[in-house]
């Protein structure tokens, strides 16, 4: 009906290409337009000005001979002031863009190792965008954004990469565990050394206390009982301690049998040995 009355409607974000006798005449903007077909005017077609997206999957090889599939997402649109170029100069815009993407990716990725491809994907996307911008601007198209949305190595390569990463993490965990055990061993050795040191101090103080107690007992007994010597008092104390020890051995419920000489001469020998040991300990301190 619109063609019958020589009127056409152009939707928003779209332009129409008007021809006259097969030759480009003008670009019709959104709205209603008169198209007198009886004067040779005709509508050649429509061109959208909206942003379009094209996902391009390209297989290539890295510098370390790993095949990867790189997926680039290209967002582009036709320029309103160059609508005639965008409509007439390219027969298949999407194939043209795809060819440029293939060219740039297959020139950039083979210069990088696999790990570098993941790290420098923004640089690859920028190179693709720059090349497309220079090429497509001559055809009336603008490149809005270029993204590398996926880098997918072969399944065996991905499995190997995961195993390498897992092995590295296990190695770090083993080192940390070894360091922890080393610290525990060092702390345990330091604790044992400190314990033995304190035990030695305790034994030395105990011996010193025994010697001091015996000395005080000897001096006090000699002053209160005239005519006694220090040796007599010391023998008496040692004999008393000897009998106290025998009493404790006999009173213990789980003590083993102990065979020792028990004559008066044996007691004198024991007393002399104990006295010599205490005197030597006192001399050392």
UniProtKB/TrEMBL annotation:
User: InterPro entries attached here?
Assistant: Band7/mec-2_domain, Band_7, Band_7/SPFH_dom_sf
Of the GO CC terms on this record, one is: plasma membrane
Q: Which domain of life is it from?
A: Eukaryota
Q: What is its main location?
A: membrane
Q: How does it sit in the membrane?
A: Lipid-anchor
Sorted keywords for this record are: Coiled coil, Lipoprotein, Myristate
Domain Band, residue spans: 5-165
Coiled-coil stretches, from where to where? 157-190
Query: Is this entry keyworded Lipoprotein?
Result: yes
| Compartment(s) | Cell membrane
Q: Per its record, how is this protein called by name?
A: Band 7 domain-containing protein
The source organism is: Trapa incisa
